Task: structure prediction
Amino acid sequence: MIRVIGVLVMMTLITAACGQQYENFQGSTNREDIENMSLQDENTSDVEYENPRSMDRVGDTWGRKQDREMMKEAANQVPGVTVKRVIIEAGQAWVTVSVDRELSNEEKMDWSKQIKESVYGAVPRYNINVKIR
Result:
């Protein structure tokens, strides 16, 4: 008799535990959630659209080509400087410029520093190297 009561109590506990709904608990997923994981929800925030560095806008607002153009513009803003070439490789950027007059070694260092600061101000994610011809 005790065995029968024990089995009935165990069956009641098992069926009660299996019948609970876990939809409201944190971390639970259902079949519909799993099927819709790859779909993107409608974004109601305008913050993403204001950010020019959004990943979905790569090529339009940022990338190596745009970085190269910004570096060129920044170096050309220094008076008497003409940019000949900009090379970007990984985290390094090499900016080759020509100056409208002959410079001593000390002047080259000063101009190089000034150009480097200007380019770094425009695109700070690269280590800037300046070569004056």
